[in-house]
Amino acid sequence: MGILSKFIPMLASKKMKQAGYWVNNPVETINEKLMSMLEIQQNTAIGRQYDFGSISSPEEYAERVPLMDYKAMVPYLEKVYQNPAGGVLTADPVIWYCQTSGTTGHPKNLPVTGLGMADYSAGSTLSQMAFIKAAKGNGKIFDGRIVMFGAPAKMDEIAGIPVGYMTGIVSSLGTSPILKKIIIPGNDIYNLTDMDEKMRAYAELTVQNNVTTFAGITTLVLAFYRRMQNEYGPWLLERLKGTKHDTKIRESMNDDGTVNLETLWPNLRQMIITGIDTDPYREWISSILPTTTLWEAYAGSEAWYACNLYPDAGLHILPQLNYLEFIPESETEKEDPQTVHLADLKKGGRYEIVLTNLNGWYRYRVGDMLTITGTDPYTIASIGRKGRVVNLSGEKLSDAHVSRAIAHASVKTGAEVLDYTVVGQVTGGLPHYIIAAMFRNDNVDAVEFVGAFEDNIRTHNEEFRIVRDMEALGATLLMKMKSSHYEGLVSESHIQRKPVPLTTDTEVLALCEAY
């Protein structure tokens, strides 16, 4: 056992003791975070505008400062671009700009400050410490390499301040010196923009190193697994022929040229994943890497919000990092929606998240929706984008409905889903949905899968049940995706592009054939 794997568990115990206080005292913690931030930012332009210095409670903050979306923030951001040295939105200077993935429109350049990055990094570190503490032997991940899927940290500049993607920025700014020693790759691979070139570089890297952890956007990691499993074996064998890695590859390859990933990465213990709901992919992941633990996080370009703190306990909101408010789903489309404090959240309720943090966001509507799965402690699930709802005949189907139903159908039928998009369309005057899915196994019963999918949506969406029973909405169909829609999106844009679980764009159907 290496020095790190001995030292880190002691540090993990300390961190988790702190986390225990925050999780068990969430209301006090999140209120203290708000008041601390308002004190820090009271002399900024926005702090003077709303007189942060005189605000004495969360209620007063909500009364005085309006809810803001990105459009409302643009005038402030333009001033920040002109004067990043501090004083507009934040007291400390902007040190980087994070370019968003552009999933909901054009990419945005969001300010990153030293204090904001410190909170973001603290969330990332806590997630890893929680995993170390979760089970005996998890500290052994530090005896090998953590493989992080990252995008370029520097692609452009605004007034001398670099612009890049958050995964690259975190690697440059937010990773502790201890972790930097074992995280691979470096900027030489992060900066690659050609998808195939990048994936092949990762393939070589993971053969040449003792991999103990993969970290990245869920579907990107899974896309890499698919390529390693089905495409890269013969290429790697030729590429590394005659090296000390030759035997490792041969021992991992099956007779048909596919690769057994469990054999290739015998010490892989952890997948740190974020970006989308993982449940639809769990059947496949557990089949190819049965001894690897999924360790989830909810993080975006603006902030680190939540992560697994304890095994099988859901994603825990981290109240020490940000001040969060919540808009009930019934209020989200109102002109002046009411927000709910953390203390007033209801288990099972679905809410839009509102963010205040040290990167300069104030009552900011991020655009994410989530479901509260527990209030003691506060845990969340089914994270998706606000407004991603298809309503062909009154059913108001959301990406949360779809993700949950795909996961249910996968478990019930044993289907190992690799990629999927659900498409709403009207054919011959009848609206209906098509599940475009890529499966690892070929023995999926289409009728059973669609039945399980619809049954689950009926359970959670009364409007869907009614319009299906009335035959105002036609039966759902299943089509086989011949190549990955998600990988195509990444190739056309960039490595941080997120998949689209629900759409009315029929482009994906061109990749499909009848099941």
Helix content: 25-40%
Biggest sheet details: 11 strands, mixed
Radius of gyration: 23 Å
State the end-to-end distance.
50 Å
Just name the CATH architecture of the domain at 389-514.
2-Layer Sandwich
Strand content: 15-25%
**Highest-level CATH class of the domain at 389-514:** Alpha Beta
Low-confidence stretches: none
The average pLDDT score comes to: 90
CATH topology heading of the domain at 389-514: GMP Synthetase, Chain A, domain 3
Coarse morphology = globular
Strand neighbour order, sheet with most strands: 6-3-7-8-9-10-11-15-14-13-12
Count of helix runs: 19
The secondary-structure class comes to: alpha/beta
- Total strand segments: 22
Q: Which helices and strands, and how do they pair?
A:
Layout (H helix, E strand, L loop, with lengths): L2 H22 L1 H15 L4 H5 L8 H7 L5 H13 L11 E6 L9 E5 H21 L10 E4 L7 E3 L2 E4 L1 H9 L2 H4 L2 E2 L2 H4 L4 H14 L2 E7 H13 L1 H8 L6 H7 L8 H4 L5 E5 L7 H7 L4 E7 L4 E5 L6 E3 L5 E6 L21 E8 L3 E15 L2 E8 L3 E2 L6 E2 H15 L3 E11 L2 E10 L6 H15 L1 H8 L7 E5 L3 H8 L9 E2 L8 E3 L1
Parallel strand pairs: 1-5, 3-6, 3-7, 7-8, 8-9, 18-21, 19-20
Antiparallel strand pairs: 1-2, 4-5, 9-10, 10-11, 11-15, 12-13, 13-14, 14-15, 16-17, 18-19, 20-22
